[in-house]
Specification:
- This protein has 266 residues and is an alpha/beta fold.
- The protein has one domain (14-260): Ribonuclease Z/Hydroxyacylglutathione hydrolase-like (Metallo-beta-lactamase, Chain A).
- The chain has six helices and 13 strands.
- The strands form two sheets. It has a seven-stranded mixed β-sheet with strand order 1-2-3-4-5-6-7, with no helix packed on it. It has a six-stranded mixed β-sheet with strand order 8-9-10-11-12-13.
- Helix 2 (81-84) links the parallel strand 5 (72-75) and strand 6 (92-96).
- Helix 5 (216-228) runs antiparallel to helix 6.
- The longest helix has 17 residues, at 244-260.
- The model has no long low-confidence stretch (mean pLDDT 95).
- The structure holds zinc ion.
- Zinc ion binds at residues 78, 80, 181, 200.
């Protein structure tokens, strides 16, 4: 298959400093379906990278100002292909133990036709635009062959569990196990600021709930955990960030939807 795609202009990644020591990194040329947020948090003693994008081009050399000379914990909120691509580039690689095996032996393809037809139908039913030939809209460089894409598996250096703390020296994040989107999905909550890094358990776009490893009952339990937290801002795995009011709205809309679809009891 020959790619009829333009070559990306400039950096493959796009970086935005959102203040408070937090940087958002995106891959704008990746299809919106797989365009995940990569979050970087500067800490006093070490930094935290939350998720690692698609791994189409190396992340670390793209931003020496973030990574050079710094100890960085690369933590995967879960192990879907759009969240783990660059995790292998870092010395510290953390994931929930339920998903450690997937981090080590991940699967992924940029060829849309490789996607399981049921999954593809689910994405389209959830409201995502139909996919093109590839999951990217530009090539990272000339001669790049999207069919050659492989995710690099990596062994976790630490298996994290519910209730642990990720400590950056001056910032502490509580680890929450929030399954639903995937069995070992985790979110990170910072009590001092009320910031929640949610991964894919909730974001302000079409949530996926009927694919492999997804479970509506688990989602409901996770939503209850989120509702109890004094959250100020949600930085999620996809889409723009939002506040507590929108969080409650999204949760309410999915509860209603799943009830009307007969997936949960009325
Ligand atoms: Zn995901």
């Amino acid at each position: 298959m020959t790619a009829i795609l333009p070559v990306a202009q400039g950096n493959w990644y796009q970086k935005t400093d959102i203040g408070g020591g937090i940087t958002l990194i995106l891959e704008p040329y990746v299809d919106v379906l797989e365009q995940a947020n990569i979050w970087h948090v500067r800490g006093r003693d070490c930094d935290l990278l939350i998720d690692g994008g698609m791994g189409i081009v190396p992340l670390r050399p793209a931003f020496p100002e973030l990574f050079e000379g710094r100890k960085t914990i690369a933590l995967a909120t879960h192990t879907h292909l759009d969240h783990i691509g660059a995790i292998h580039e870092f010395e510290e690689r953390w994931v929930h133990l339920i998903e450690a095996a997937t981090l080590e032996h991940p699967k992924g393809s940029l060829v849309s036709a490789d996607m399981d037809p049921k999954l593809r139908a689910m994405f389209e039913a959830a409201g995502y635009p139909p996919l093109g030939t590839y999951l990217i809209h530009a090539l990272p460089y000339e001669d790049y062959d999207p069919a050659s894409y492989r995710l690099k598996g990596t062994k976790a250096t630490r298996l994290i569990e519910e209730g642990e703390t990720v400590d950056l020296g001056d910032r502490k994040f509580q680890v929450l196990l929030v399954p639903g989107h995937s069995p070992g999905s985790i979110a990170l909550f910072e009590e001092k600021t009320g910031i929640l890094f949610a991964g894919d358990v909730i974001y302000d776009g079409p949530l996926l709930y009927q694919g492999p490893g997804m479970d509506v009952g688990d989602y409901l339990g996770s939503f209850e955990i989120l509702e109890r937290l004094p959250i100020s801002t949600v930085h999620a795995g996809h889409d723009p960030s939002f506040g507590k009011e929108r969080l409650d709205e999204i949760i309410a809309s999915y509860r209603a939807r799943w009830r009307s679809e007969g997936l949960i009891q009325a």
